[in-house]
Design goal:
Rossmann fold; elongated; Alpha-Beta Plaits; 2 domains; 14 strands; six-stranded mixed beta sheet; 10 helices
Length: about 300
């Protein structure tokens, strides 16, 4: 499948600081792709380079085949970016803001699409409100709407739900999922890892400017598959055969990491045979947050 975003050997240095250290990445057309990493990993720098706002020290980036430096205008038309920062003009209404944004791309008389975007982001009732009168969550909705007014085939969402209420978050994802189903490529960065797990079919993890994991969400979860078990017992020790799986223990409460449910069954049998009484038990399958923490620890 053709690439929506092609990133080749991208480096970025700020003096002695290397923010990106040779990133290679392809995002296929129509993908819902996650870009994850701790603060300072280089995610926003990489997005800024893709958007043509920052120039790479080395390497190149193409959006739908258009180089973001040598063919900036075309690349920018093909891309919609929702930034982290709440940047807005305080002198315009919501509708005026979106009309001006559409005008930057040479679009006129596209109020039908603007109305649809506002409806899906629950902005219709505030269409004529001044931007400075909006709450932080409402301003973030407008940023999302601005990124969509020119119907770009590639949409980059940089922490789009930060500080946003749960109801809007669900409505936003319904809308974005619909755009993805209709063929739009979505790239998402988020600290809400449960969102990435539910939405993204493939994920890259960045640390210190390098990609340290890249695979489908299913494969990443599979590589670190297992169970985390929280046990509270009527004593402060486990039978000898169960101690190898313990990752934390304190006053009769144990955290264990098991490979699968067969290992859980064997553990419970050991406890029964040793006459141990289980006071509390909680089983958590591996989720993306656990995978993320283990990948970051490994690197």
């Amino acid at each position: 499948m053709d690439s929506a975003i092609e990133i080749r050997n991208v480096e970025k240095r700020y003096g002695s600081l290397q923010a990106l250290a040779g990133v290679d990445l392809d995002v296929s057309q129509g993908e819902f792709f996650g870009l994850l990493g701790p603060n300072g990993a280089g995610k926003t720098t990489l997005i800024s380079i893709v958007a043509g706002l920052v120039k790479a020290s080395n390497g190149h980036v193409r959006v739908m085949g258009a180089d973001v430096v040598t063919d900036y205008r075309k690349a920018r038309r093909l891309l919609g970016v929702v930034p982290q920062e709440l940047v807005f003009d305080p002198f315009f209404t919501v509708r005026e803001t979106l009309r001006f944004q559409a005008g930057y791309f040479g679009l006129r008389r596209n109020d039908d699409w603007i109305d649809e975007v506002m409806h899906n982001l629950d902005l219709s009732s505030r269409a004529d409100a001044n931007m400075r009168a909006l709450s932080g969550g409402m301003k973030r909705r407008v940023l999302v709407a601005q990124a969509l007014v020119h119907k770009p085939p590639v949409i980059v969402l940089d922490e789009p739900t930060a500080g946003v209420d749960v109801e809007l978050r669900q409505g936003l994802w319904r809308f974005i999922r619909g755009l993805n189903r209709s063929g739009h490529t979505i790239v998402l960065t988020t600290h809400y890892l449960e969102e990435a797990e539910q939405l993204c079919t493939r994920i890259a993890m960045l640390k210190a400017g390098r990609i340290v994991a890249l695979d489908s969400t299913r494969n990443l979860l599979g590589k670190f598959s297992g169970l985390q078990l929280e046990l509270t017992l009527d004593r402060d020790t486990l039978p000898d055969g169960a101690r190898a799986t313990v990752i934390a223990a304190e006053s009769g409460h144990f955290t264990l990491r098991l490979r699968d449910y067969a290992e859980l069954e064997a553990l419970l049998r050991q406890l029964r045979e040793a006459g141990v009484t289980i006071l509390e038990l909680e089983v958590d399958p591996t989720d993306l947050e656990e995978v993320f923490l283990r990948v970051m620890e490994r690197h």
